[in-house]
Design brief:
The complex is a heterodimer. Chain A has 2 domains: 51 residues, no CATH class; 126 residues, Immunoglobulin-like. Chain A has 2 helices and 10 strands; from the N terminus they run αββαββββββββ. Chain A is elongated. About 33% of the residues of chain A have low confidence. By secondary structure, chain B is of the alpha+beta class. Chain B has 2 domains: 128 residues, Immunoglobulin-like, CATH 2.60.40; 112 residues, Immunoglobulin-like, CATH 2.60.40.10. Helix content of chain B is 17%, strand content 50%. Chain B has 2 helices and 19 strands. In chain B, the strands form 4 sheets. In chain B, strands 2, 4, 5, 7, 9 and 10 form a 6-stranded mixed β-sheet that branches. In chain B, strand 4 and strand 5 form a beta hairpin. The longest helix of chain B is centred in the first third of the chain and has 26 residues. The chains are: A mainly beta, B alpha+beta. Chains A and B meet through strand 1, strand 2, helix 2, strand 3 and strand 4 of A and strand 1, strand 2, strand 5, strand 9 and strand 10 of B. Strand 1 of chain A pairs antiparallel with strand 19 of chain B.
Chain lengths: 210, 298
Amino acid sequence: MRKTSLLLIALLLGFLLFPSISRGTMSSTNYTIFADSVDSGGALSTGGTYTLQDTTGESPVGSSTSSAYEVIGGYQAMDWAILTIGIDTATIDLGTLSRSAVATSSAVVTITADAADGYVLSVASISGTSLTGVNDGEVSAGQEEYGVAVSGPDAAFNDDRAIAAGLNLSSSSTPATETQTTLTFKASISSASVMGGRSQSIILTASTNL
Amino acid sequence: MKDLNRLFKLSRHLIFLLIFFSLFIATAPARAFEISPVKSLLTIDPGASQTIIVKIKNTEKNNLTFKLNVLGMMQDENGLPIFSRGTDVAENWVYPENNSADIKSGETKSINFIIKIPVDAVSGSYYLGLAVEPVLKKNDQASLTTRLVSLLTLQVKGTVRESVIIEKWAPVNAMADKKIWKFDLNLKNDGTIEVTMRAAAAIRNWRGEEIFSEPIVLGNKFLAGSKRVLHPEIILKNGIGLPGLYSAQIKINYGLTNQTVSAIAYVWYFPRWSKIILGIIILILVFLIFWRVKRVKR
C-alpha cells in the first residue's frame, strides 16, 4: 500500500516537473483554388470545398456561395516593379597570400528595388577551387581560412562566413533605392597550406522578397 | 603676376575636375541591368499554354548578351527565396523563347517565357524563378557575376489543400526566472498551396485562467512544402507575479479556409525574489533541524 502511494506520488511529481513540452494539433481542409481570391486574398473564408476558377483576362469573375466554380480562362497578376543590380567590379584578386596577414578584396553591389516587398541578395552558386571555409566567425592570420564579410544597411550578418550557395548576403522587406552592400572577401593561409593558385567563380542572385 | 595667378587658378580647377571624374568612374557600377516584373502569379488549367513577358534593360555602357534560365524556387527557414536548378518539376514546364538576348546599351527588350502545363499536372502551387544573367566575354577574367530573378508562382487548377503543422513549440528554458520567455517555434506547410498566417500566444496560470494574450509575428507568405523556424519572445505583463507552472498556447490562423492550429508549452516561472525567499526558508529549516538535533543530544 505504502509502495503504491510512493509510486503514485513519484508519478505525480514527474508529471508536474516534466510536463509535455509541446502538444500540437493539426487540422486541414481541402479547397480548390479560386483565381479571384488569390490576388485579392481572403475573399473565401466560408471553408469547405472550392474549385479553382480562372477568369478571362485580368478581370476576375464574380464568386458564388457554391463550393464549385466553373473554369473560364486564365488569370494573371504581375508586379511591374523594377529590380536593378550593379556591381563595381567583376574581379576579386586577393593577390599572394602570406601567413602573417589576412588578404582582403571588396566588391560593392548596388540594388534598387521599388517592389513593396523589398529584395534579397544571396550567393547563387560557386565553382572552382578555394581554401578551407571559415567556420569560427573570423578569418585570422596564420590559419587557412576563406570567407566573406558584408557591410551596409541591409547586411545579413556581421562576422566572416564561408561562401556557400544560398548564403544570404543582404535583404530588406521594404523598397530599396541604390542600397549598397559591400562584400569583403578574406583569405589567409597556414604553414600547412598547399602551395598553388586558387580561383573561384561566384554568381550572386537578387530577387524581390516573397 | 596676374597671368601667373590666372594660370594657377585654372590648374586648380583642372585638378578638381580630374578628381571629380576619377571618383565618378570609380563609383559608377559596372554590369548594371534591371528587370520587370519582379513577381508574377498565374492560375492555369492543366494542358494549357501561356506566355509571360519579362523586360530587361541594359543600363551598362556596353552592349550585353543575357543568358535566360528557369530555376526552381524554395523558401528557407527564414522565409527567404532560394533558387536552384532541379528542385521543382515545373522547371520543365517553362522555357524562354530564346536562350539568350542581345541588348544594346540603354535599351530595353521584352523576353517571352512560354508556359506549357502538362495535362496530368497535379493541382497546387509551383514556384519558379525566371533568371537573367549577363554573359561574360571570353577575355573577361571576371570571377563575380550577378543575376536577377523574376519570381513566378504557377497555380494549377484543381483542388488544393491548406495545411500548416506546428512541429515544435517549446520554451528555450522550461524553468524561467526572467520576464522574457523565449520559445522555439517550428512550422511546416504541409499543404499544396502557400498561406498567410497570423498568430497569438495566450499565457494561462495553473488553474487555466488566461492572464494575457500577445500577437506573434510569423513572417511573410508561407510557401507549400516549406519549413519555418522562429524564436518568438513573450514579455510578461503585470498579471504574472507569482511563481508556479504556466502554460503558453499558440494559436495560428491561416489560409483562405481560415483554419486554426494550436500547441501548448509549459513554463515553470520562478522570479528571482521567489528564489531568494526559498533560499531563506531552506536556511531557516536547516537551522531549525540543526538546533533541534543539538537540543535532543543535550
